[in-house]
Amino acid sequence: MAEQAVHVPAGEVSLDGDLDLPDGARGIVLFAHGSGSSRLRPRNRHVARLLNEAGLATLLVDLLTPEEEAFDARTARLRFDIDLLAERLVEVTDWLGDRAETRGLRRGYFGASTGAAAALVAAAARPQVVHALVSRGGRPDLAGPALPLVRAPTLLIVGGEDVAVIELNRRALAQLRTEADLAIVPGATHLFEEPGALDEVARLARQWFERHLIATRTRGAA
Fold it and tell me: Which domain holds residue 52?
């Protein structure tokens, strides 16, 4: 398996991404970052690597261009433009469906922070395409009216010490009309920087994707 640098057209811009395709990949997880993060940050790359080991392909993509990221670093405005982030996530999702080496793979989302809200909005826009969704320390409440429209089974993961975000996730969970669950990682704060916390996130995500991307496909092919 080798990481490929990709450039995804999205309207008038091109988005940078890193695509990992394990041999015999059984599904692909598209990572949506938020709150000033990027595809190069180690937290999501760590989770992606463990998903690769489980036979899942991953695409880590920056939903903002370098120029937009520089503007956002000064203003913190674009990271909260959920409609823009979701629109670009939909375009990346469609691009995966058009690409020969990925079009046959069931697609899922892994969203962090405001990227989780964008993932939920995008999943509501592509209900026949997005088959599973995991949020890490996310702000699903920012998905607003899209929440009841999501059809992809959704797992919300929050750190046990991230009290305010736990409450926001509980409220969002109550609005979801699909199979959904809230997993709280004891002792973890918002960024899951405590020893073993991120490994627990990866374990929970892997189980969710194996259940809703891999197992479902296997049953459908039987």
Answer: 3-221
Lowest mean pLDDT among 42-56, 167-181, 199-213: 42-56
Q: Domain containing 105 — which CATH number?
A: 3.40.50.1820
Three-state secondary structure readout of the chain: CCEEEEEEEECCEEEEEEEECCCCCCCEEEEECCCCCCCCCHHHHHHHHHHHHCCCEEEEECCCCHHHHHHHHHHCCHHHCHHHHHHHHHHHHHHHHHCCCCCCCCEEEEEECHHHHHHHHHHHHCCCCEEEEEEECCCHHHHHHHHHHCCCCEEEEEECCCHHHHHHHHHHHHHCCCCEEEEEECCCCCCCCCCCHHHHHHHHHHHHHHHHHHHHHHHHHC
Number of domains present in the structure of the chain:
1
| CA 202 centroid distance within chain | 12
Task: State the angle between helix axes of 114-125 and 82-98 in degrees (0 to 180), rounded to the nearest 10.
Answer: 60
- Residues 62 and 31: beta-carbon distance below 8 Å: no
pTM for the structure as a whole: 0.92
d(CA 81, CA 218): 37
Q: What are phi and psi of 5, to 5 degrees?
A: -80, 130
73-132: pLDDT as tens digits: 888 788 889 999 999 999 999 999 999 999 999 999 999 999 999 999 999 999 999 999
